[in-house]
Amino acid sequence: MEYLTVTQAAEKWSISTRRVRLLCANGEIEGVIRKGKLYMIPAETEKPLDKRKLPNKRKRGEFADILTAIDIKKIKLDSMRPLTVGETQRLRDEFMVDFTYNSNAIEGNTLTLKETAMVLEGMTIDRKPLKDHLEAVGHRDAFLYIEEIAQNKTRLRDTEIKAIHSLVLMNRPEDKGVYRRIPVTISGAYTEPVQPYLIEPKLTELLAENEKRKKAMHPIERIARFHLEFEGIHPFIDGNGRTGRLILNLELIRNGYPAINVKFADRRRYYDAFDTFYHDGKADDMVLLVAEYVGERLDKYLEIVTT
User: Fold this and answer.
1) Is ATP-binding there in the keyword field (predicted)?
2) What is the DSSP letter of 28?
3) Do 17 and 150 reside in the same domain of the chain?
4) Pair 9, 145 in one domain
5) Active-site residue (options: 133, 218, 234, 279)
6) What is the total count of domains within the chain?
7) What is the DSSP string of 186-234?
8) What is the pTM of this model?
9) How far is the C-alpha of 57 from the C-alpha of 144, rounded, in Å?
């Protein structure tokens, strides 16, 4: 293997020799060999990312390690070749089926992953309820809608929330896009959803708080917290979970992160994150869950563009 001196690496990367030595000393360059005061750097090593220039540096707080790792992955991905139209379409379609299956399954839909894919291709599954078919189609349409409006970088509004819910609950025309008018309880939950007359003011308050948090909170932590609090308000008679996860993805996409898919297999951990928040007031479990899913999605894209 060929190696570069600190001076040669500095010239190659257009940075100072002092900066190269600091990167070597901090272990930020892989494969470095130290001989006394000299550093030998593998010749094919790419220029390390300058972590001083990472976005959201002052907003990571107690989640600094995982959020820094995510921001580094995002910068790497943004700097690499873009996916082709065909690659993007294929990955989007695969994700949409997987996301639709898992999000609906969490709420009790009986379609399998394969059956969900078939329904989204226009097929009818024998002996499966019409409701389950309509939920799959509605969720697919809602995901396509959030992809479309994600290009609009404006603040999240209640009109968008109602529009998403209208697509999710397409099989319930009398309830879609309408805030509930009766009190409800969530079986086994530590919180009780607000009374109907408080839904609009509480949601308005949450949307305003979401805007304020943009100045001081990392996007992923802010989005995870919004998800926790939105589900606590429980504004609709049905479809709150699916709507909430779609809103979560809308906000991730708007902030340059990939959409995530909370797996049906992870539903216990997902529910426990709500319990922890409403019992102890701690959002850590949900923030870490969302962050891990974002990191996994970024890893998948990085693997594709580097092979």
Assistant:
1) yes
2) -
3) no
4) no
5) 234
6) 2
7) -TT-SS-PPPGGGHHHHHHHHHHHHHHHTTTS-HHHHHHHHHHHHHHH-
8) 0.85
9) 32
Quickly count: other Cβ atoms within 10 Å of residue 101's Cβ: 25
Q: With the CA atoms of 53, 58, 63 and 66 taken in that order, what torsion angle do they form, in degrees rounded to the nearest 10?
A: -10
Q: What is the DSSP letter of 288?
A: H
pLDDT tens-digit map of 146-192? 999 998 877 889 999 999 999 999 999 999 999 999 999 887 777 88
Question: Which CATH number fits the domain that encloses residue 261?
Answer: 1.10.3290.10
140 in a structural domain:
yes
> pLDDT band for position 49 (50/70/90)?
confident
Q: Which whole number is the average pLDDT over 50-65? A: 71
- The answer to whether residue 227 is catalytic is no
| 33 and 166 assigned to the same domain | no
> Is residue 134 in a domain?
yes
Q: How far apart are CA 206 and CA 63, in angstroms?
A: 22
Kindly indicate the confidence band of residue 229, based on its pLDDT and cuts at 50, 70 and 90. very high
| Listed residue (237, 301, 276, 253) closest to 143, CA to CA | 253
Structural domain including 17 reads: 3-48
Q: Which residues are annotated as a binding site for ATP?
A: 238-245, 270-271
